Amino acid sequence: MSSSPQARGRHSILVWCLAFCAAMIVAGLVIHRFELGWAGTLAIMLVATGMTVPIILAVERSARFEGCLSPAMARYNRRMIAGSLLYTLGLFVAVYAYKNWHPSGALLWGLAMLPALGALAMVAAMARLLIEEQDEYLRLKLAQSALFGTGALLVLATVWGFLEQFRLVPHVPAWAAIPVFAIAIGLSRCFNWARA
Fold first, then answer.
1. DSSP state, 58?
2. If we measure between CA atoms, which residue out of 6, 84, 79, 100 comes closest to residue 50?
3. Which class for 59: exposed (0-12), middle (13-18), buried (19 or more C-beta within 10 A)?
4. Where is the chain membrane-spanning (predicted)?
5. What is the pLDDT of residues 53-65, one digit of tens each?
6. What pLDDT is attached to residue 1?
7. Per-residue pLDDT tens for 72-85?
């Protein structure tokens, strides 16, 4: 009994998402456990981050089959890949330079901002998508996902902040806001995708 092309497309996306999660966990464990040097650590980080590419390609194949891959979404996907790679490289360079060169002054400020460039590129990609998307229904779905992500971030930050205030949970750095927001948007899209 063969499954439909739509079911195969969704299965492929699920498999790549699970592979990405596994790659991120394994990368974190390997980097934490072994002394890989800067080249090994960078390679592990880039491979794990690069796992987003097959996910995006699988999503695009499925959307193309279903007739809902817009040119704006295809551009968004490329911008997000570039932003995430810029973030990974920026984070690696900043942490490596900080630990090994012990910079100060303006150089330290520049290094601290380096990973933020990738994060800002990803936020800009999200904004461009809402501006460039011509299909009103798709734009509505994107806005709903962004609203869900914003709400989830606000709720989580508020609850965590109060728990942290009473020393019940550890401090979480402010830069965690972008990953939490992105994960919440991803969950929202998965819910919409599963209901379709």
1. H
2. 84
3. buried
4. 12-31, 37-59, 80-98, 104-130, 142-163, 175-194
5. 888 888 888 888 8
6. 47
7. 999 999 998 899 88
